[in-house]
């Protein structure tokens, strides 16, 4: 594979997009590797593992590492379904246009509404979590004022890079990819080979985390170790109209994101476990932020500072990728007239060919949320981000369910990436996995504090409820006349197109 794949045989990119009812609005300056880097830095195993390591170990012990394999496998099935959809519909915005064309505009409104808020909250959370690294690097005190200022810095710098165009986005994403691979795979291997203080058998030892109860309950509670990590691959499809040969390249990029991200996370998580000087203290919950001590003991103070630079690059790339994905979703939503101020939101810069106004919104709302967190404290950060992951899973499964519905009605995906006879089976298993994941995410806590225990479902109810109310009262879909629910008809049209030479299986 190379970063500039050869042109697609058969339907060209512009012809494919025109056949779907749209004209080119962007520059196709993103190749396969830049597209993969965008998804990978959004998924960001470095950010995910660092954020969840202590929680996973204190909840499920070292065997919680197996959730990375379980969730990675499930999300790979989801990515395969997404690959077939984006291969037929390589349209900017991802979740929104896919659900619209697979089901309908009201269904798409709800899926996109939930997804865009989940992404905006995630942008805020990643910027906030990244401030600890930056404060540590510059020896700044971690006060509320410093956290706010550094969060704003993350958001504004990412906005400036995004504003300068897709080429810059691709370059920075590739730099972020390199930083992730060094900080996750490279460091993980170093810890495994040269700094191992625990036996490999530790991964099969609960270390008493279950207390007097069942370990099965403790293991299920540690599912967040994987569920919070394996999303971001869909961002590859959010920028479909900026990618060369997207119908072939984006499915590959999404699959690479899951596979490379999964292997990277395993090396990182495993390396930290085996290099921990006092693993029992982490499992017992006595060390709530163990990674800095592990790094300092393994790398020394200079090495730990170098890692901080690598980690900061990863955090910035993650915010950059999230902003890009959110802005393209907002643009796609607005282009079809589905949002207030849709004309303004769907405007694309003639100079940089980015949806500048949608990008402003994707930066401004997180800035406002950072101000709210400054006023409300870190507890508010936990509460407003609690729904983000389940919101993303709900949006993902909206696509999987819509794809299955179309298959039952007779849809045979017509893009060059095609699962063939395995498509239905993979689609069913992907939906079953998604329901299982959402049940795990929605399980109430056991603290005895109502708001804390039920915050995930409360957040989802508020977002979905407000979206449904707006849909029923304002009827934003009523003025939108772009096609909907046309998967079977479009597949037949693409097959009949004289210039279309499609692959017949995923292996081609």
Automatic annotation (TrEMBL):
<feature type="transmembrane region" description="Helical">
    <location>
        <begin position="253"/>
        <end position="275"/>
    </location>
</feature>
<feature type="transmembrane region" description="Helical">
    <location>
        <begin position="65"/>
        <end position="86"/>
    </location>
</feature>
<keyword id="KW-0472">Membrane</keyword>
<dbReference type="GO" id="GO:0016020">
    <property type="term" value="C:membrane"/>
</dbReference>
<keyword id="KW-1133">Transmembrane helix</keyword>
<feature type="transmembrane region" description="Helical">
    <location>
        <begin position="107"/>
        <end position="126"/>
    </location>
</feature>
<keyword id="KW-0813">Transport</keyword>
<dbReference type="Pfam" id="PF13520">
    <property type="entry name" value="AA_permease_2"/>
</dbReference>
<keyword id="KW-0812">Transmembrane</keyword>
<dbReference type="GO" id="GO:0022857">
    <property type="term" value="F:transmembrane transporter activity"/>
</dbReference>
<feature type="transmembrane region" description="Helical">
    <location>
        <begin position="32"/>
        <end position="53"/>
    </location>
</feature>
<feature type="transmembrane region" description="Helical">
    <location>
        <begin position="306"/>
        <end position="331"/>
    </location>
</feature>
<feature type="transmembrane region" description="Helical">
    <location>
        <begin position="454"/>
        <end position="473"/>
    </location>
</feature>
<feature type="transmembrane region" description="Helical">
    <location>
        <begin position="175"/>
        <end position="194"/>
    </location>
</feature>
<dbReference type="InterPro" id="IPR002293">
    <property type="entry name" value="AA/rel_permease1"/>
</dbReference>
<feature type="transmembrane region" description="Helical">
    <location>
        <begin position="424"/>
        <end position="442"/>
    </location>
</feature>
<feature type="transmembrane region" description="Helical">
    <location>
        <begin position="214"/>
        <end position="233"/>
    </location>
</feature>
<protein>
    <submittedName>
        <fullName>Amino acid permease</fullName>
    </submittedName>
</protein>
<feature type="transmembrane region" description="Helical">
    <location>
        <begin position="380"/>
        <end position="404"/>
    </location>
</feature>
<feature type="transmembrane region" description="Helical">
    <location>
        <begin position="146"/>
        <end position="163"/>
    </location>
</feature>
<feature type="transmembrane region" description="Helical">
    <location>
        <begin position="352"/>
        <end position="374"/>
    </location>
</feature>
């Amino acid at each position: 594979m190379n970063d500039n794949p050869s042109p697609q045989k058969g339907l060209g990119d512009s012809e494919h997009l025109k056949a779907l009812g749209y004209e080119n609005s962007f520059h196709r300056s993103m190749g396969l590797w830049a597209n993969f880097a965008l998804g990978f830095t959004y998924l960001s195993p470095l950010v995910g593992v660092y954020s969840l390591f202590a929680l996973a170990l204190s909840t499920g012990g070292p065997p919680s590492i197996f959730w990375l394999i379980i969730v990675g496998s499930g999300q790979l099935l989801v990515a395969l379904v997404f690959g077939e959809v984006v291969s037929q519909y390589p349209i900017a915005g991802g979740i929104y246009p896919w659900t619209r064309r697979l089901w309908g505009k009201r269904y798409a409104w709800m899926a996109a509404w939930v997804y865009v808020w989940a992404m905006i909250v995630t942008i805020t959370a990643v910027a906030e979590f990244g401030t600890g690294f930056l404060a540590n690097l510059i020896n700044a005190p971690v006060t509320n004022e410093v956290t706010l200022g550094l969060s704003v810095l993350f958001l504004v710098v990412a906005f400036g890079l995004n504003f300068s165009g897709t080429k810059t986005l691709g370059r920075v994403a590739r730099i972020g990819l390199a930083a992730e691979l060094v900080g996750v795979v490279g460091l993980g291997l170093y810890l495994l080979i040269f700094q191992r203080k625990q036996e490999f058998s530790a991964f099969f030892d609960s270390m008493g985390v279950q207390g007097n109860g069942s370990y099965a309950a403790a293991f299920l509670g540690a599912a967040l170790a994987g569920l919070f990590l394996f999303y971001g691959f869909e961002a590859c499809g959010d920028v479909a109209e900026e990618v060369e040969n997207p119908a072939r390249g984006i499915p590959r990029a999404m699959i690479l994101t899951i596979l490379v991200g999964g292997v990277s996370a395993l090396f990182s998580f495993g390396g930290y476990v085996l290099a921990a000087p006092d693993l029992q203290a982490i499992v017992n919950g006595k060390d709530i932020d163990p990674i800095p001590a592990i790094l300092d003991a393994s790398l020394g103070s200079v090495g730990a500072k170098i890692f901080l630079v690598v980690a900061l690059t990863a955090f910035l790339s993650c915010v950059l990728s999230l902003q890009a994905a959110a802005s393209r979703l907002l643009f796609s939503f607005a282009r079809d007239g589905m949002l207030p101020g849709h004309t303004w939101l769907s405007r694309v810069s003639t100079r940089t060919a980015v949806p500048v106004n949608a990008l402003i919104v994707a930066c401004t709302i997180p800035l406002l949320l950072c101000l709210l967190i400054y006023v409300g404290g870190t507890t508010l950060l936990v509460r407003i981000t609690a729904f983000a992951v389940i919101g993303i899973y709900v949006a993902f499964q909206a696509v999987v369910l819509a794809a299955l519905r179309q298959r039952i009605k007779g849809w045979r995906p017509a893009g060059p990436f095609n699962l063939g006879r395995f498509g239905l089976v993979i689609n069913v298993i992907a939906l079953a996995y998604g329901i299982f994941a959402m049940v795990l995410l929605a399980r109430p806590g056991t603290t005895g504090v109502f708001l804390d225990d039920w915050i995930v479902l409360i957040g989802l109810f508020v977002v979905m409820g407000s979206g449904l109310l707006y849909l029923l009262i304002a009827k934003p879909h009523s003025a939108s006349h772009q096609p909907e629910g046309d998967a079977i008809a479009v597949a037949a049209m693409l097959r009949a197109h004289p210039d279309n030479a499609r692959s017949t299986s995923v292996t081609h």
